[in-house]
Every structure is written in C-alpha cells, then in structure tokens.
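In this section we walk through a basic example: taking a raw amino acid sequence and producing a predicted 3D structure, encoded as discrete structure tokens. The instruction is simple. Fold the sequence below.
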Amino acid sequence: MAEKLTLDLVTPYRHVLSEEVDELTAPGSVGDFGILPAHTPLLTTLRIGELSYRRGNEQFHVAINWGFVEVENDHVTVLVETAEPADEIDLERAKAALGRAEEALKKLSPEDKEFAVMRSALDRAMVRIQVAGRQTRR
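The resulting token sequence is shown next.
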C-alpha cells in the first residue's frame, strides 16, 4: 500500500502544483470528500469551494472554481477553472468582488438571467476570503 498520494492541480492557464501529499479533502458536487492513499479509482465533479491537503504536519488550502477530480493508482488529478492557494489570494480584491456581487444580487430576482452568474461570483468571493484567512498550520 502506498504511503503518499501524488497531487496535480491544473487550470486551463497553469499547472498550479504537483506535490506528494498524505491526504486531501475536496468540495464535491454532492458534498465534501476525502482521499487517502490506496483510494479506489474515482472520477467526479467539483463545485466552488476549498480544497485542502496535508503534507506531513502542514495543512494547505486552495480556493477552487468548478472542475473534476480523478483518482487512480495513488495519483490525484484535479482539473479546475481556477485555483488560488491561500498565499496567492488578494484579500482586498476578494472583498471588493464580494461587495459587487452582494449589490448586484440585491437588484436581481432568482428568475433573472444574471442571478445565477452573480450567485456564483458571490460564492467564489466568499471561498477566496475564507481560504485567504487560513495560514499553513503546522
């Protein structure tokens, strides 16, 4: 049985990271799930949320935006639209985005075409703020 997982996190714009990790937790479309070494093969979708992984005693956090995860032979591939590690998030920009989304949603009803777009923008901003507040924990 393998003792580590190889995690590759990729967006259409860059290869965000490639790490040997002990475990990870991801925001699945139907709920959060964890992956440990020797996990059964898996292919599933991801929602806007926080992906976290542990390497030794360190915990790392990444804000992600929609995508897929595949697990096979202790290799985890995460393909997402965007991914921002906690230390790369501009907190002021995230707060500004949150304010814009909140203001827009006040003027929209759920029937409006833009409602879902602005709701997703709100969710992304909230996750980015949450993740930015997390430091690597030892």
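Looking at the output, two observations stand out. Residues 28 and 46 are 4 Å apart (CA to CA). The chain has a mean pLDDT of 93. In the next section we compare this with other chains.
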